[in-house]
UniProtKB/TrEMBL annotation:
Organism of provenance: Brassicogethes aeneus (Rape pollen beetle)
SMART domains in alphabetical order: Aamy
Official protein name in the record: alpha-glucosidase
Residues in Glycosyl hydrolase family 13 catalytic domain copies: 36-428
Domain of life: Eukaryota
Signal sequence extent: 1-23
Recorded catalytic activity of this chain's protein: Hydrolysis of terminal, non-reducing (1->4)-linked alpha-D-glucose residues with release of alpha-D-glucose
Similarity-based family: Belongs to the glycosyl hydrolase 13 family.
Keyword Hydrolase carried by entry: yes
Stored Gene3D superfamilies: Glycosidases, Oligo-1,6-glucosidase, Domain 2
Enzyme Commission numbers on file: 3.2.1.20
PANTHER family assigned: ALPHA-AMYLASE FAMILY MEMBER, NEUTRAL AND BASIC AMINO ACID TRANSPORT PROTEIN RBAT
Keywords, sorted A to Z: Glycoprotein, Glycosidase, Hydrolase, Signal
């Protein structure tokens, strides 16, 4: 029995006691909102069109104001920019377009002052071909010759060593006459894959993590991790069952020898040990490791660690199900099935998490219908565990409008006939701060992507002034979430075929209930798991709802089509 419960039993006669909320020793990150900043698009301090660290510093108060306690920044490392910061030429320095290491230290200091944790992106799969390590490897320097994956080609070295295909199409190998060998690049040729079978590489990359933690960084988000290891003997991959793929397409092969290898999980577990060790040695709060994996549930949970917890990996591995499996047409039943799977099947020692958007996916108000944006905002906040919010979601930002000639996404602008289908620029347009020129992103200079036309009707300043606004909803949801610790059960129900319900009973006398009538007609439903004689107060509702915050409702409640709300039950 834990001490809190014991204390409660002792005190219960005299003091009202709530062991469920108070107990548990929940760590800072477990129900936190992690706010992803895409630095290029957040705030441009020097009016050169690209967001930067001083811009972020000047807007950290916004995070504080919104109630956010942790932020993760998309890559800010020194990079030639072939793949928008995912080709890193120095893991220990800031790219000049974003600022300097001094700026970053200033950012950390200000964040610390405001109580906001700072998480950095970690891109371990490959460096830039301009990284010192690669230059030395190219010169066959003894120390570095094995830092990358070099191999002799087939057919007397005239063809790549095997049939592997790059994510960006074509052979995953590039020939360099300096060494007379081919190197592996699973993305662009300017992104040589690091050789994780070389212990020196493993150590050098661990040193990078320590470098940033020594500066005060609170954790890392690891970019698409499955590609870390490949089989050592470089054997050919078999054909996939995708009949429409051509040999140049990544989808042509089944990636059984280049993705999700056991060694990759082990490396994640090693990084976790390193983070834990850093905390043990230097004190302070938990350093958090989060992994980005677009794989199925079974693979994804292996990144968390072994099922019995004997080895731990990521504190959480992003759950993208609400992105990849939910669309505008999804029924309440479809969505609840997805939620139940995570809630019911994630081993209890692990913490669930919920993501609605990021810099690689169309913004959810555009994907799921602008009309449904606040319903999904409420849904996400009522789910157990970590919430991940992409910058702009707190004001319900939709995708911007970008044409191919204004675009920047390197894979998309290569071929304008596929731009609309594949570009990620739409979800990366500048943050909409206010109604001034360029939405307050900068002082009217150029902007690296066009500012959305919608900024006059939708910007942070306007939403702060509104009584009912997405931003105000977002803030009040963060307050509610403070009560929804991991100990609070999550109960789902489908009512009258179209209404989804999520109940979070905190104790016998207090619960939150989320109801969402997706499609269908007006429905009258009984709040499930609620008691007849309880009091029900609306604490959040869709902006167009007839149910206004503060209204008292009965256990039986009427919901218009697409209406949603959260009620607090008290007795
Ligand atoms: C293999 O390539 C080398 C270098 O280009 C050439 O000298 C040699 O003749 C080739 N051998 C065969 C068998 O084609
Ligand atoms: C409800 O939302 C769906 C999806 O966005 C939309 O197609 C439909 O028109 C909405 N229904 C009403 C009555 O607003
Ligand atoms: C551009 O994409 C279209 C549509 O997939 C394709 O037919 C065309 O060959 C591509 N052009 C180039 C230059 O790759
Ligand atoms: C594990 C890893 O670093 N993967 C990255 C490989 O490169 C692509 C393209 O730059 C990134 O998107 C992945 O995150
Ligand atoms: Ca700038
Ligand atoms: Ca690799």
């Amino acid at each position: 029995m834990n001490l809190n419960i014991l204390l409660c039993l002792v005190l219960v006669a005299t003091i009202s006691c709530n062991p469920i909320v108070e107990a548990g020793g929940q760590d800072w990150w477990q129900t936190a909102v992690f706010y992803q900043i895409y630095p290029r698009s957040f705030k441009d301090s020097d009016n050169n069109g690209i967001g930067d660290l001083q811009g972020i510093i000047s807007k950290l108060d916004h995070l504080k104001d919104a109630g956010v306690t942790a932020t993760w920044l998309s890559p800010i490392y020194k990079s030639p920019g072939v793949d928008q910061g995912y080709d890193i030429s120095d893991y220990r320095d800031i790219d000049p377009i974003f600022g300097t290491l001094e700026d970053f230290k200033q950012l950390l200091a200000k964040a610390k002052e405001l109580g906001i944790k700072v998480i950095l992106d970690y891109v371990p799969n490959h460096t830039s071909d301009e990284h010192e390590w690669f230059k030395k490897s190219l010169e066959n320097d003894n120390e570095y010759n094995d830092y990358f994956i070099w191999a002799e080609g087939r057919n007397n070295n005239t063809e790549p060593p095997n049939n592997w295909v790059s994510h960006f199409k074509g052979p995953a190998w590039t020939f360099r006459k300096e060494r007379g060998l081919w190197y592996l690049n699973k993305f662009a040729p300017q992104q040589p894959d690091l050789n994780y079978r070389n212990p020196k590489v493993v150590q050098a990359m661990k040193d990078v993590l320590n470098f940033w933690m020594d500066l005060g960084v609170d954790g890392f988000r690891v970019d698409t991790i499955p590609d870390l290891f490949e089989v050592e003997d470089l054997r050919d991959e078999p054909r996939s069952d995708d009949a429409s793929a051509t040999p140049n397409d990544y989808e042509y092969l089944s990636h059984i020898y280049t993705q999700d290898l056991d060694e990759t999980y082990d490396m994640v577990y090693q990084w976790r040990e390193l983070l834990d060790e850093h905390q043990k040695t230097n004190g302070g709060d938990t350093r958090v490791l989060m992994t980005e994996v677009y794989s199925d549930f079974e693979k994804n949970i292996k990144y968390y660690g072994l099922p019995d917890g004997s080895r731990r990996g990521a504190h959480f591995s992003f759950n993208f199900e609400l992105i990849v499996k939910v669309n505008e047409g999804s029924s309440s039943m479809d969505i609840l099935t997805i939620i139940d799977r995570w809630v019911d099947n994630l081993p209890e020692i692990y913490t669930p998490n919920w993501v609605l958007g990021n810099h690689d996916q169309h913004r959810y108000p555009s994907r799921l219908g602008p009309e449904n944006r606040d319903s999904f905002m409420m849904l996400q906040s009522m789910l157990p565990g970590v919430q991940v919010t992409y910058n702009g979601e707190e004001i319900g930002m939709e995708d911007g409008q970008v044409s191919c000639d204004e675009g920047a996404d390197p894979q998309a602008i290569k071929n304008c006939s596929i731009f609309d289908a594949v570009s990620r620029d739409f979800e990366r347009t500048p943050f909409q701060w206010d109604e001034s020129v360029n939405a307050g992103f900068n002082d009217g200079g150029r902007t690296w992507l066009p500012v959305s036309d919608k900024y006059l009707e939708n910007n942070l300043k306007k939403q702060k002034e509104g009584v009912r606004s997405y931003y105000n909803t977002f803030k009040s949801l963060i307050d509610i979430r403070k009560e929804l610790t991991l100990k609070v059960p999550t109960k789902t129900a489908l009512l009258k075929e179209s209404v989804m319900a999520i109940s979070r009973p905190i104790n016998d006398c207090r619960a939150y209930h989320f109801l969402y009538n997706r499609h269908g007609d007006t429905k009258e439903v009984d709040i499930p798991y609620g008691l007849d004689d309880s009091k029900y107060t609306v604490v959040a509702s869709k902006l167009t709802s007839q149910h206004i915050i503060g209204d008292e409702v009965s256990q039986q409640i009427k919901l218009d089509p697409n209406d949603s709300l959260i009620v607090r039950e008290t007795c």
